[in-house]
UniProtKB/TrEMBL annotation:
Organism this protein belongs to: Phytohabitans flavus
Residues covered by the NIPSNAP domain: 7-99
Protein name, entry field: NIPSNAP family protein
Pfam family, one: NIPSNAP
InterPro entries listed in its UniProt record: Dimeric_a/b-barrel, NIPSNAP
Alphabetical list of Gene3D superfamilies matching this protein: 3.30.70.100
Amino acid sequence: MITCVVEYVVDPAKIDEFERFARRWMELVDQHGGSHHGYFLPSEGASDKALALFSFPSLAAYEVYRARFGADPDFVAADRIREESGCVLRYERTFMRPLLPER
């Protein structure tokens, strides 16, 4: 399993738009072979940081999902929310592997 951690710098005045963007991407990840673990948004105080975590069974499975960017109409429409609203100022993607509790 591989987990993608995306750290966003968001426009605090556009959190509603960011939430709309995030909800759509949660659906798309889940529809295309991944498991979305949610977005973590600013809560208390002034903050412009948000996180997203989602996993795929393998890097190869993630790459199949990524190949849809720019081509699949649903992916293009979801990304358009970010582009048109300006809710995301920048983002950074990191890949990690989870260490889970033994059961």
